[in-house]
Write a structure and sequence with these properties.
By secondary structure, this protein is α+β, with helices and mostly antiparallel strands. It contains 26 helices and 27 strands.
Length: 746
């Protein structure tokens, strides 16, 4: 029996093609006098920043170690690429390093890698090129002792996929297809079919109501309303070339000379609600955003209500605030658009909240940990250096307090923690300081697998100052591992460093992993690791107003008694309806303002018959004047709490420096998120520079809470110049963190 053959039908052959579009960033870094570089092993040179992305918000830097990043690489140059900042979760890329041979304009020693980057990622080659090879003149790599490093970064943007079918038949000749936009362009140019004229200056443009109304809500509303002559539209606030280009965009989605007329087109897009044109303008502007132009483009985006563009420019400013505030555009913004300063501050608050939420999310993903703070189990011991003397005591806002703190962190299930390089766990926040309401907040940051691959055989450990009310803290730090069941410390590391808020200090190579894991019984009993943190530190602060007492020197008591009993008085101070009989010698010796008033009054009284010169003090309450006079006579003041602000204003007016310092210290003690904005206004009004600086620091540390206070809303409305001070302080703080935010101690 024969088996019938199976019929197989052939289908047309099919092809497909996927093409990836790539954005390429090329950066050449020139280093002169290379052979004279002073860096030692593990010391690096950092390139200027360069950028990628449409809004230039991806910030990159190259890091070069002229003598290697480790002892094992000291005969080589180590080269790395670091992603400083980005808003993207990750960036896949191909990076290619090379050295430019300038004599022949060719590249050599090419090395490339493909990796995914996140903010903070650092990748590259510890042995990029041997120093002997680089310094060999025969190789020609250092023309005029100048090294040029080339970096090319290819970042995938999108993929385009096409497919087609070959059915075996001869394909007919392709006839070019007309595009709809081509026909609409003809329609725009054809005046015979137009039904409306656009009149601008001395120009008339023929157009079609249907097209205009379908593309612009403004034109649509205009044509629906009754008009005397519906075939004419007059535009008075745009140039003719701008209107002509806008009409071409309406018909074809293309705006001629967009690069050179972008701001004019943006104004037209806002006027006629052309979202597409506004978006194209935004893309062009974002390509031009940099440290010098960002502030100016923020003004443009705000003026034309381009909210998406404004948000992206604002994001750039947030990421580059220290450099932006030094630009001429920012200075112009400060003078002419102060309302935008408030928006920048609120954007800072939003950014801080987002970072806090991200930090909380990361903490929630961390292993279960138990932290114990011995300082919380017993009173904190601290010493205050304070000189006690009889007589007048000078109160200074820079008195030094020295404190000693001890904190222990116990980490449970330690051997089950992630061991990858760059993965960290954080302790809980612990608070230190003598002031119960204004503690300094710290935490420890441990990388069990090292902070990066170069230290993957070590634990990396850092102490972070999360927040403080003080401008700076001088800290002597000691970190160590505590042996199980004992108080014995192992692997002790010590350093003396200055801390500012947001700064971390620690060691990449804190202790070798094998030293811990090879002695589990000593260090990981019950699978727990104990870390000890001890530090002594100094803070500068104002002395408490409650410490102020009336001087008890007999001469002081006698002088005050003469004032109260009006004995031997030779002048009268008139405050409202109250007269204080005083003594010219005391007033002139203590207050430059009173001294000038007395001299002027004596000149005016020559030949007068009045028995006593009269000094009139306006705009002051009698009880405030009495307390001020009490300070002038005794060097102390009673009941300061009841009239601190009025007394500080009086002290500023009469140039009583010590009294102003006392009042400033009292206000600083009562500082809170509710009164911080009002206190800033008072400090500025009374020219209390040190108080103002400390209040600004406090506000920037608690910005999210302060901006919700009623005092801050009053500050926004009435004291825009103080917003400038806040932003400049923020920028200075960011710059400080950039330059010394993480001190590596080796």
């Amino acid at each position: 029996m024969s088996v019938p053959e199976t019929a197989v039908s052939s289908s047309p052959k099919q092809w497909g093609c996927s093409k990836m579009n790539v954005a390429r960033i090329t950066y050449d870094w020139t280093i002169t006098e290379f052979s004279l570089r002073p860096e030692d092993v593990r010391q690096k040179v950092i390139s200027p920043a360069f950028y990628s992305g449409s809004a230039k918000i991806d910030e990159w830097r190259l890091e070069l170690y002229p003598r290697g990043d480790d002892d094992g690489n000291k005969d080589h140059l180590s080269l790395f690429l670091k992603l400083m900042a980005t808003e993207k979760p990750e960036i896949p890329l191909q990076c290619k390093f090379s050295i430019l041979k300038t004599s022949t304009n060719t590249k050599t020693n090419m090395k490339k890698f493909f990796r995914k980057y996140q903010a903070g990622t650092v990748l590259g080659y510890p042995c990029f090129i041997a120093r002997t090879h680089l310094l060999d003149k025969a190789q020609g790599l250092l023309t005029d002792d100048t090294l040029v490093i080339c970096c090319e970064i290819d970042i995938p943007t999108d993929t385009i996929t096409t497919s087609w079918v070959d059915d075996g038949r001869k394909q007919p000749k392709q006839i070019p297809k007309r595009r709809l936009v081509d026909d609409l362009q003809v329609l725009l140019d054809n005046s015979n079919l137009s039904d409306v004229k656009i009149i601008v200056e001395d120009n008339k443009f023929n157009a079609h109501k249907l097209i205009l109304a379908s593309r612009s809500p403004v034109f649509d509303a205009m044509f629906k309303q009754s008009m005397e002559d519906e075939s004419l539209v007059q535009i008075d606030d745009l140039r003719a070339d701008v209107v002509k280009g806008m009409l071409q965009f309406i018909y074809t989605d293309e705006a001629p000379d967009l690069e050179n007329m972008v701001e004019e087109y943006l104004g037209a897009a806002e006027k006629f609600q052309l979202g597409g044109l506004k978006g194209k303008c935004g893309e062009v502007i974002l390509e031009r955003v940099n440290d010098e132009t960002a502030a100016g483009f923020l003004v443009v985006a705000d003026h034309f209500k381009a909210e998406e563009l404004k948000a992206k420019v604002m994001s750039y400013i947030m990421s580059h605030l220290p450099r932006v505030v030094r630009s001429e555009g920012y200075k112009e913004l400060e003078k002419k658009h102060p309302v935008l300063l408030g928006e920048i501050i609120r954007a800072q608050v939003t950014l801080m909240e987002q970072k806090a939420m991200a930090s909380d999310a990361n903490c929630n993903q961390s292993p279960t940990m138990r932290a114990r703070n011995p300082a919380l189990e017993s009173p904190v011991s601290f010493e205050t250096s304070r000189t006690t003397k009889r007589g007048i005591r000078r109160i200074s806002m820079s008195d030094v307090k020295r404190l000693r703190e001890t904190w222990e962190w116990t980490i449970q299930d330690f051997q089950n923690l992630p061991e990858g390089s760059g993965e960290s766990i954080q302790s809980g926040v612990f608070a230190t300081g003598a002031d119960r309401d204004n503690k300094d907040k710290w935490y420890l940051d441990l990388y069990p697998g090292g902070r990066d691959k170069d230290c993957s055989d070590y634990f990396s450990l850092y102490l972070m100052l999360k927040s403080t009310k003080h401008p700076e803290l001088q800290v002597h730090l000691q970190l160590s591992i505590v042996k199980a069941g004992t108080k014995e410390k192992f692997g002790v590391k010590e350093a003396h460093r200055k801390f500012v808020s947001g700064m971390s200090v620690g060691w990449r190579h804190f202790i070798k992993r094998k030293e811990i894991f090879s002695n589990v019984q000593d260090f990981l009993a019950n699978n727990e690791l104990r870390i000890s943190c001890e530090f002594n530190y100094e803070i500068k602060s104002g002395e408490r107003s409650s410490d102020l007492v009336v001087n008890d020197l007999p001469v002081v008591k006698d002088l005050w008694l003469c004032f109260e009993q009006s004995k031997f008085s030779d002048c009268a101070i008139i405050v409202g309806k109250k007269t204080f009989h005083s003594h010219k010698m005391i007033l002139a010796a203590r207050s430059p303002t009173f001294c000038r008033m007395i001299e002027e009054t004596c000149q005016e009284r020559k030949g007068a018959t009045e028995s006593l010169p009269r000094l009139h003090v306006e705009d002051m309450k009698p009880e405030v004047a009495r307390r001020m006079l009490q300070f002038i006579y005794t060097g102390s003041v009673e009941n300061l709490e009841a009239m601190t602000e009025e007394l500080m204003a009086a002290a500023d007016r009469f140039r009583l420096v010590e009294l102003k310092d006392i009042c400033a210290a009292a206000l600083l003690e009562k500082l809170s998120v509710k009164n911080a904005a009002d206190t800033l206004v008072k400090a500025d009004k009374c020219h209390a520079k040190e108080l103002k600086a400390q209040v600004i620091s406090f506000i920037n540390e608690h910005l999210g809470e302060v901006v919700e206070s009623s005092g801050y809303k009053r500050l926004e409305q009435n004291h825009l110049e103080l917003l400038r001070d806040l932003l400049r302080a923020q920028a200075a703080g960011v710059k400080a963190k950039e330059t010394e935010g993480s001190a590596e101690l080796e």
